[in-house]
Amino acid sequence: MSDVSKDADTFICVHRFLNKWEPLTYFKLRNVASHPLPLTNTNTLNQSYIEQTTISSIIQKPRINYTSSEAWRCNRGVSIRIRIDSNQSRLYCLCPPSYYGDECQYQNQRVSLTVQIRVSSDWKKLFIFLLTLNDNEKNIESYNYIEYLPIRDCNTKYNTYLLYSIRPKNSSKKYSVQIDAFDQLTLTHRTSWIYPLEFTFLPVHRLSVLLKNPMFKIESIKKQCWPPCIHGQCLSYINNQNLTYCHCESGWSGIQCNVNHTCNCAPGSLCISSSICLCPSGRFGHRCYLVESSCQSQTCLHGERCVIKDIRYRYSNQNQSICICPQGCTGDHCEYRENQTEIDLSFDDLETIPSSLLIHLILIEETAVPKRTSIMKKIRFDEYSIKILTSVMFHMAFAQILKDYYLIIIHENPFIFEQISTKIISSYRCRSIVELFDEIFSNRHILKRVKYYHIPCQKNVELNCFYDEVHICLCTRDRQANCFEFDHNMKYDCNGSNFCEHQGNCFLDDDKYPTSAFCACPNCYFGSKCQFSTKGSTLSLDIFLGYHIRSSNGLNQQQIIIKIAIMLFIVIFVFGSINAFLSFQTFRQKHIQNVGCVIYLYASSIISMIIIIFLALKFSFLLLIHIGSITNRTFYYIQCLSIDFLLRSLLCTNDWLSAFVAIERAMNVVKGVKFNKTKSKQLAKWMILIIMVFISITFIYDPLHRNLVDDEEEQRVWCVTKYSSSMQTVDWIMNIFHFSLPLLINFISSLVIIFILARTRSKSQKTKSYEEHLFEQIKYHKHLLISPFLLVTLAVPRLIISFLSSCMKSARDSWFYLFGYFISFIPSILTLGIFILPSKICKETFKKVVSNMWQ
């Protein structure tokens, strides 16, 4: 080697560490104004519990010396020496499941199975998964099981072997792996998966699966299995809905559940076959007769549940059971509080408080992309501030409400285990570049516009932050833009297990070890799963009033909206009862029942009385059910189907009866002396019956689409109407028809009466002009115009609620809908003012009825 090459090598060796590349700086948080000021930083939280690991003393035991040939004698097994007598011993091999033979020299035909499990709910519930290797006749070749606790085992991968029952396996048969999920507390079947083994010629088949356990138990399907199930249910596999199988009753097995076997399992356990017993929590062993009593001595604080660890994977120095601790607690008995940062967030000058918001915590690491942690927080209807607890360290925090971002916390030093009080202030809203520039500028390529990002900070002194489609930018003290990457379109779907309805976003409280999930609902939807809609005609008293009722509280502890609703109901009930009774007594007099219109009004007074009774039942049941005084689910289901349907039908019936009254009055004026009163009475009786049947038929879809929905978060049951898009169109058309047509008939009939009378008078009395006669008739028959005018006015809120393209975006907006709902019942309590008092004959009859009642 030449001297030159030696010198070059020496130079490179000496200087290779001198010229280091500077690491890439992603983002620096410097020269920024801290917010909020003054910053509340009080370390008042409990000190975190530091679990100390005790190293047990190692007991020195005599060791057996093996020769090198003996140590390697067992292929992938463990060699043991068994003493035969005092002078002799023999070497044996303990083989793993994948090998057999006296020296583990033969490989077993097997299925190597790797399982990882994800659940979308019930993170604190203990499951048991039964893994079976079956042939095409559903004979079980071998099995294993997994005891799975989601909050403990959500990231665990389970590896196991499933062996064939004979060596070699029967190559003429087809095999599959079936996995069945059970709730270990009740041993109820949850769901099943099937994985056929396609390459049966392979001696070892590797199978890796990710199981997504559904929220609800899979129900029996309508179609029948073939061959049919004899002692079991026909179900479909969750990963292949086209395949069906028979889920057998305890004591039965086989492809048709037709093989009876003697169950030797302990009472309370589940007998899968003659050799397989599934044990409930607290029992173990081949037949579940052994009892594990460690949870009886384990005391879990905060009312939490004790769970026994799987006896097969438990070490002697470990606790035999664990406590499922609530969020923020730790320790063997949940006795310690975790240290967390507490953020008290209030809403300063926002016009409306949202039902939920996102908190984005940003941790700055100069040599890495800023780390983002998103927390969804639901805001109850009676809350005006929220508290966020987190153990995540962060420098900045943004609150996201829909598509708006608000800077709520920023500091150059990271926050950890602190208490912070801050507000969502409109002046700290991060504005979009579309607002700051224009749409043309915002559509440019990012490289062509990012150099202008300092301009908004320099022109607008009050601007604290802004954002584009890929960044969020901060304005520093020297009015420069400091930007970092931010994904505005992040998908929130609970790791692919989104259970939220109506395109709601799903959030886990912890990405690694979740204990709960939440839904952030779009506008017009709310509920723990976004299952409740406030769109148009689906509104009911349950939707906009039910969530305001505080369960297990008396009336004095209810919110102000509930107390006002009770007062409104009492007013409507009292006036409605008096109106219905007096109207009924007036129209039942025989001397005025000489025409059909009185028959219509007589029927309307009876229906008004029934409406008031059903409204009283509806409101009372709603209070009692959500307070907790009524818990019978069957009763709730019956009233869910019936009362709203009957109220809706009866209200429309009253509208149509008032329209028939207007039609008959118009016909009376048109025909004059030729008007047949007897026929009008007979026609009225038939029309009342026909319109009631007709309205019931047109609204019959309403109870067919009603059902009870369990709200696990609120621990309530709700009566919900769910329409498809086509049924929503039908419902909208029915509302237009039943609301608009009776009102239009009322108005047109009144105009017909006035114009015909004016024309008749002008022909007989020519001393006055037609316009003068028309004015006189309007003045004389003003009650005919008052009735439809009042009906139209009182129906307007009802029409607005039903037909607005918008919706009640939050249950905080319940006031308008509450008043609109009660206003829709006012026509039923104003029969006296609309039909009796404006008419001379009816008014005189009413006075006689009242005077007779006082005597």
TrEMBL record:
Disulfide bond entries: 229-246, 248-257, 521-530
Gene3D superfamilies the record matches: Laminin, Rhodopsin 7-helix transmembrane proteins
Main localization (coarse): membrane
GO cellular component, as recorded: plasma membrane; protein-containing complex
Segments crossing the lipid bilayer: 560-587, 599-625, 645-663, 683-701, 732-758, 784-804, 816-837
Superkingdom, natural source: Eukaryota
Domain (EGF-like) ranges: 221-258, 490-531
Domain G-protein coupled receptors family 1 profile: 578-835
Keywords: Disulfide bond, EGF-like domain, Membrane, Repeat, Signal, Transmembrane, Transmembrane helix
PROSITE patterns in UniProt: EGF_1 (PS00022), EGF_2 (PS01186), EGF_3 (PS50026), G_PROTEIN_RECEP_F1_2 (PS50262)
Compartments (UniProt record): Membrane
InterPro entries recorded: EGF, GPCR_Rhodpsn_7TM, Notch_Cell-Fate_Det
GO biological process: establishment or maintenance of epithelial cell apical/basal polarity; heterophilic cell-cell adhesion via plasma membrane cell adhesion molecules
Name of the featured protein: EGF-like domain-containing protein
Organism: Rotaria sordida
